[in-house]
Amino acid sequence: MDIELQRDGITLRGKLERASNEKGPIAIIFHGFLADLGYTEDSLYSKIATRILKENISVIRFDFNGHGKSDGKLVDMDILNELEDAMAILNYVRKLDFITDIYVVGHSQGGVVGGMLAGYYPDVISKLALLAPAATLKDDALMGIVMGTKYDTNHIPETVSINDTPFTIGGF
Fold first, then answer.
1. Pairing state between β 99-107 and 125-131
2. Long-range contacts: 123-126, Cβ < 8 Å, 24+?
3. Do residues 129 and 110 share a domain?
4. Are residues 119 and 172 in the same domain?
5. Separate counts of helices (H) and strands (E) for the chain
6. What is the rounded CA–CA span in Å between residue 147 and residue 163?
7. What are 27-56's pLDDT values in tens digits?
8. Which range marks the domain in which residue 39 is found?
C-alpha cells in the first residue's frame, strides 16, 4: 500500500507492506544516500523487504526528503532533516493498530539515521539492524570530503557538486 505523510510541509512517500492480517512486528527500512525505497523487485531495499516479510514481519519503507518520490530537493537534505523524516515515519507507525514491536533496518546513511533514531527512542524501537552504516560521515566532514569530493574546511561552501554525478548537495 502506498503511503504519504507530511513533515513540515514536505510530503514523504513510501510503501507499507503487511506480513499478515494479524498483529505483529514491523520493520522500518531507511535507505542510503542518493537511493530510494526500492521501486523495482531487483533493488536492494525491495529484496530486503521481501526477506523480512517472509519472516512474518510487516515492512514500511519510504523516500527521505529530496530522494525518490518524496518532496524536497537533494541540495536541502541533511542528516538532521532526515532524522526528522525518520521521526515522522516512526510516529506514523506508532499509530498503526496492528503493530506489536518496531524494528529499524538502516543502510549506509540510513544506518546513521536509524542508529540516531534508536538512540532517541530506546523504549519504542526494540531491534536495530545496521547494514554498512556510514560510520565515517563525521570524520569525512572534518577532513573536507563528501562522496570523494574535497572541499576547504576553512571555507565551507553552501553546496558541493559530487564528482562524476549530476548531484549537488548542501546542508553544511
1. parallel
2. 124/90, 124/94, 125/90, 126/25, 126/101, 126/102
3. yes
4. no
5. 4, 10
6. 8
7. 999 999 889 999 999 999 999 999 999 999
8. 2-135
* Amino acid 2: pLDDT: 97
pTM, 2 dp: 0.88
Largest CA distance in the chain: 55
The answer to whether 125 and 94 have CB atoms below 8 angstroms apart is no
Q: How far apart are CA 67 and CA 71, in angstroms?
A: 8
Lookup: cell for 163: 564528482
Please state the domain count of the chain: 2
How far is it, in rounded angstroms, from Cα 65 to Cα 77? 6
Contact (CB, 8 A) for 102 and 81 = no
